[in-house]
């Protein structure tokens, strides 16, 4: 029996953002992490 290559579930989901949008989100998240307190960053990332 051959080895099964596994992919994470995130790789099998359809993409809803373009790569430039994903990169912008990553850079924005890094900016928030580097310029705010941990408590404030958690509020920003978890508020609806």
Tell me, briefly, the overall form.
elongated
State Rg.
16 Å
What average pLDDT do the residues reach? 85
Q: Please trace the helix and strand order, writing H or E for each element.
A: HHH
First-residue to last-residue Cα separation:
47 Å
- Number of strand elements: 0
Q: Helical proportion?
A: 55-70%
Main sheet attributes: strand count, strand direction, barrel closure: none
H/I helix tally:
3
Structural class: mainly alpha
Percent range for β-strand residues:
under 5%
Low-confidence region ranges: none
Explain what the structure shows.
- The chain has 48 residues and is mostly helical.
- It has a domain at 16-46.
- The chain has 3 helices and no strands.
- The longest helix is centred in the middle third of the chain and has 17 residues, at 19-35.
- It is elongated, with a radius of gyration of 16 Å.
